[in-house]
Structure formats: C-alpha cells, structure tokens
Design goal:
Blueprint lengths: L9 H4 L5 E9 L3 H9 L9 H17 L14 H7 L3 E6 L3 E9 L6 E2 L4 H4 L8 E12 L3 E12 L2 H35 L4
Antiparallel strand pairs: 1-6, 2-3, 3-4, 3-5, 5-6
Helix pairs in contact: 2-6, 3-6
Length: about 200
C-alpha cells in the first residue's frame, strides 16, 4: 500500500478513536483550489431539508432551554475561523494546502451539551473523566492529474469507560445525522471548488 504523501494531523489528536466516520468526494479541481474551498467553507451555506432537520434537531433542547431569553442572533457567516473564535471549537492544527483539523470537548450525549473550554495546546493531553474529545478533519489529496479527493473525517475519543457507554448510545442515534452534515460539507466544498462561488 502506498503511504500518504503527508501524515494526518488527525492522528496526532485521535490516533486510536473509539468512534468515527469518514466521507469522501471527488472534486473536479486541483488540490490547491479544493483546499482553498475547504478553508473558506461557510457552514451557513449548508443547504437541504435533511441538513436543516439534522441541525435543528440537535439545537432543539438548547433552544427550548433558552426560550424565555432574548432570541440569539443567527449568524450570517460561519467559517472555520469564526467557529474557532466564537464557539467552543478550536483549530487544532493546519497543514496548509493539505489538512485542517478542529476539535471540541464536551458531554455531547446530553440534550444540552456541556462543553469544556480548552486551548489547542492542551487538547491532546486532556483526560478528565466523563468527556468526549471530538476531532474533525478536512483533507485534500491529488486524485489523478486534475482532480482532488476531499475527505471529511470525524473521530471521537472518550476519556473513561462510563463516558464510552454514554456516547455509544448517543452515537447509535446520531450517526445518520452526522453523515448528513458531513456529506453536505463535502458537497458545498465541491461546488465552491468547481464553480468558484458559494453554494
């Protein structure tokens, strides 16, 4: 088997994940163009009934809890940089032109997720019991002479057996929704790379 031309950053943060999912798409564009589309991905551009439903279902408990408070402003743009600056997600690392990795730590199986703020430099060594460490990677590889294979991968590491059991029950239900969003991300990247415009 031919080795990858570069080691995956995701392997540094979740080398032996407890759970995971990987999706791919072939893009009719060169790797640098495809990677630029990855880096400029705007999560508010994800479209489709299933995507809206998947995201809405996950946000429903939080919205219910916050129903008596002032309605939060709906973001009009959410790039990777925005995600890292305005949410509990952090950019764990980047190999420019090849891979971008973000991560978050939380009790994701709870209806209202309890996130744990952590800096990127502390993510790898975090081991407090009761948490899931979620690592999401977007990477590009040459596919023939003119095309690119774009991969979206989610890896999850649990910090103790009790968290593993809680997450396993959650994962059985949430896997289809994770897949819907992952494939929507790849479709959006593909469209942007091939047309030069947002979806």
């Amino acid at each position: 088997m031919t080795p990858l031309p570069f080691p995956l950053l995701a392997d540094q943060f979740a080398p032996r994940p407890d759970f995971g999912r990987t999706d791919h798409v072939v893009v009719n564009a060169d790797p640098m163009t495809a990677y630029q589309a990855v880096h400029e991905l705007d999560l508010t551009d994800l479209h489709g009934f299933l995507v809206t439903t998947a995201i809405g279902l996950r946000e429903l408990p939080e919205r219910w809890r916050e129903r008596h408070r002032r309605t939060p402003r709906t973001p009009t743009r959410m790039t990777i940089d925005d995600l890292a600056n305005g949410t509990d997600w952090v950019v764990l690392g980047e190999q420019p032109g090849q891979e971008l990795v973000v991560g978050a730590i939380g009790k994701v199986w709870r209806p209202v997720v309890r996130w744990r703020a952590v800096d990127a430099r502390d993510f790898q060594d975090f081991a407090e019991p009761g948490y899931a460490k979620v690592v999401c990677s977007l990477s590009t590889l040459p596919y023939g002479q003119r095309r690119t294979l774009v991969t979206a991968e989610t890896r999850v590491v649990l910090t103790d057996p009790r968290a593993w059991l809680s997450f396993r029950r959650y994962w059985r239900v949430s896997t289809p929704f994770v897949g819907i969003i992952s494939r929507a991300v790849l479709r959006t990247v593909k469209h942007s790379a091939e047309t030069g415009e947002p979806r």
